[in-house]
Amino acid sequence: MDFIKRHYEKILLGVVLVGLVGALGYLPFKISSEKETLNQMTTGHIDSRPKPLTNLDLTIAEASLKRAAVPVMYDFFNTNKLFNPMPWQKAADGHLYRRDSTGPTAVAVTNITPLYLKISLDAVTLSADGTPLYLFGIERQAALTKEKARKTSEYVKVGEKKSAFYFKDVQGPPAAPTNVVIQLNDTSETAIVPNNKETPWKRVDGYMADLRYELPGQKTPPKTWPNMRVGGTLDINGEKYNIIAISKSEVILSAATNQKKWTLKFNSSA
Predict the structure, then answer these.
(1) How many domains does the chain have?
(2) How do beta strands 233-236 and 239-246 pair?
(3) Average pLDDT, rounded, for the chain
(4) What are the backbone angles phi and psi of residue 25, rounded to the nearest 5°?
């Protein structure tokens, strides 16, 4: 025990030296093992085959592209009241009404009637020399004046040209034809006119409209304009509006002061 007490430092130092020598002897083996492991990791086979791709769902992307291709139309007049506040006005009887429900926008088209060009064969007579004369009736309902819209009659021979048509041919016996063939001067189309004044040949040449103007909540009778044609004039609250076009589905008005236009739609199912 005395020896250990006197030389314990040397003994402890020796143990440490022995441990260091053992560690130095083990180190080459550890380095070799690590190198072999790294070599196997770099040279070993790695399965690099990728997995097959699944079908991509592009529904959302395609829908977004379709929406982007369609321009967005914003209505800042009818639906938006931030930039276009709704004005109100008091009528003579004291009730309030929206000002945008007055004027030409408040005019309703209650009916639209077609106007025809009608051509009929009314009679066949013989002249003094025995030549057949054909009495045609012509009615231009779309004419600008009532006088010009009335039915007129005129005798025509085969081969003659009149104001409305050229008389081309007769089908059947000349003195009692079943039909006659004419060519219209304005369109050069051929028309077959039956020998019956009650069933004339006809085509649509224009339209006339019935219009109605009524303020919301008013107690007085509404203002109406029946049988209005192109060229007619409406007096709405002291302003003049001209009818510049009528079709089977709409009427177009133009202000007499500044030529601003309004399109009035006709709802035939209403």
Answers:
(1) 2
(2) antiparallel
(3) 84
(4) -70, -30
pLDDT at residue number 245: 94
Q: How far apart are CA 81 and CA 94, in angstroms?
A: 25
In a domain, 11, yes or no: no
| Any domain includes 255 | yes
Of the residues 155, 175, 205, which one is the last residue of a structural domain?
205
Non-local (6+) Cβ contacts of 60 within 8 A are: none
- Rg for the chain (alpha carbons), in Å? 50
Give strand pairing partners of 90: 96
139 SS3 class: strand
CB 35 within 8 A of CB 27: no
Looking at the structure, tell me whether residues 160 and 193 fall in a common domain. Answer: yes
Q: Please check whether residue 55 lies inside any domain of the structure.
A: no
Q: Count CB-CB contacts under 10 A for residue 137.
A: 17
* CB neighbourhood size of 255 (10 A): 16
In a domain, 215, yes or no: yes
Residues 178 and 232 in one domain: no
What is the span of the domain harbouring residue 168? Answer: 115-205
Instruction: Evaluate if residue 152 carries a pLDDT over 70.
Output: yes
Determine the average pLDDT of the residues in 3-7.
66
pLDDT of residue 168: 95
Is pLDDT of 270 > 60?
A: no
DSSP letter (8 states) at residue 191:
E
